[in-house]
Amino acid sequence: MKKRGLIERLNQGPVICAEGFLFEIEKRGYMASGEFVPMVSLENPEALLNLHRDFQHAGSDIVQAFTYNGHREKMRVIGKEELLEPLNRAALQIAKDVATSPMGKEENLMAGNISNSNIWKQDDKKSQLEVEKMFREMVGWAVDEGADILIGETFYYAEEAYTALKVMKETGLPSVITIAPYGENIMRDEISILDTCKKLEQLGGDVVGMNCHRGPNTMMPYLKEVRKELKCHIAGLPITYRTTIDHPTFFNLPDNNGCSCHSPHETTFPTALDPMQCNRYEIKQFAKEAYDLGINYLGVCCGATPMLIREVAEAVGLKVPASKYRENMENHYMFGKNKRIPKHIKDYRKKA
Ligand SMILES: [Zn+2]
Predict the structure, then answer these.
(1) How far is the centre of ligand 1, averaged over its atoms, from the C-alpha of 178 (Å)?
(2) What confidence tens digit (pLDDT) does each residue in 205-250 have?
(3) Which string of DSSP letters, residue by residue, matches 220-278?
(4) Which contiguous run of DSSP H or E holds residue 216?
(5) Residues with Cβ < 8 Å from 173, sequence gap 6 or more?
(6) Cβ proximity of 37 and 70 under 8 Å
(7) How close is the Cα of 212 to the center of ligand 1, in Å?
(8) Helices 216-229 and 280-293: crossing angle, nearest 10°?
(9) Span 103-113, mean pLDDT?
(10) Residue 25 exposure: Cα atoms within 13 Å on the Cβ side
(11) How many Å lie between the centroid of ligand 1 and the Cα of residue 340?
């Protein structure tokens, strides 16, 4: 089967993209939380390959190279700048391997990835040029390793997102650009979420939208606005935590679920968010609502698991390899309706 491009796929229906590699690789034991450097592509490549395969099995159409935070500045912070290029190339090659050996008939799309640099400073040309250089070298490696598309994500400065898009557009590859405003509900350079997205569309973003920082509840209102105002394809990839109007992002989300032992660093982010996790039905509901609005590029970011990616895919009508193992309570030993389940076991369920 001929591999379709991103825009062709989006014109025909939903496209699923699993993100959230940082949290999931950390949970699987291959990354230090807080520091969050994706050394996994060099140090435990099979662990990264397995996660990509699990997301692919769950229905991700895009295999996004795990280079989030794998940029020159972060490598300087940990004193391993010399590993920058090998890390990027290894992550891209692993993603390419997975994308070109699909579980269905059609190959997946391999995505190169750039993201928030955390050194961008408003009105500071020097920092901005430095960031642009970091983007350009990473995008260059992605093109070199055969990326089908480019994803720029998690930007909280509008101007940084514009710069990322400019660098991605130079390659001629389809470009996805998503922003992640903080709790003030505005970009840090004081441009509104909607205006930032409008500008990204004007600058040629093929897919524009939001990822990370916000759960379904506090991302959806903005996605609705953006979908209404823009003509291009829209992306929605929330985190999987129950953010609220008072705490629109996961950074200051308090534990409201009976915590008896707090994290040693004041916030539940990033290591004690578990009790605020959305359940699969909430994620499924988000995906369905977004798709019904005309948002075709869907996924989840931090907190993503293969199970949740399957829920997103199924919410928009797709059948994926992992659909074989979807919920089947029918045969549960106590809650199931299967007639072989003994009555005395079923009858006890309210006391279980
Ligand atoms: Zn995220």
Answers:
(1) 11
(2) 999 999 999 999 999 999 999 999 999 999 999 999 999 999 999 9
(3) HHHHHHHHHH--SEEEEE--SB---SSS-SSTTPPP-S--SS--TTSS-TTTS-GGGBP
(4) helix 216-229
(5) 112, 143, 147, 148, 149, 150
(6) yes
(7) 4
(8) 10
(9) 95
(10) 31
(11) 44
| DSSP sequence for 286-315 | HHHHHHHHT--EEEE-TT--HHHHHHHHHH
- Cβ distance 326 to 338 under 8 Å? no
- Give the three-class secondary structure for 319: coil
Q: Which two tokens stand for residue 297?
A: 């590029």
If DSSP states are collapsed to H, E and C, what string results for 53-87? HHHHHCCCCEEECCCCCCCHHHHHHCCCHHHHHHH
**Per-residue tokens: 243:** 């953010």
How far away, in angstroms, is 4 Cα from ligand 1 center? 27
Environment class of 320 (CB within 10 Å of its CB; exposed 0-12, middle 13-18, buried 19+): buried
Taking the CB of residue 231, how many other CB atoms lie within 10 A of it?
6
Q: What are phi and psi of 207, to 5 degrees?
A: -130, 130
Residue range 109-150, pLDDT digits in tens:
999 999 999 999 999 999 999 999 999 999 999 999 999 999
Model pLDDT for residues 30-79, shown as the tens digit of each residue:
999 999 999 999 999 999 999 999 999 999 999 999 999 999 999 999 99
**pTM of the predicted model, to two decimals?**
0.97
Question: Identity (one letter) of the amino acid at 33?
Answer: S
Distances (CA, A) of 214 to 37, 91, 237, 275, 291: 22, 26, 9, 16, 18
Distance 252 CA to ligand 1 centre (A): 15
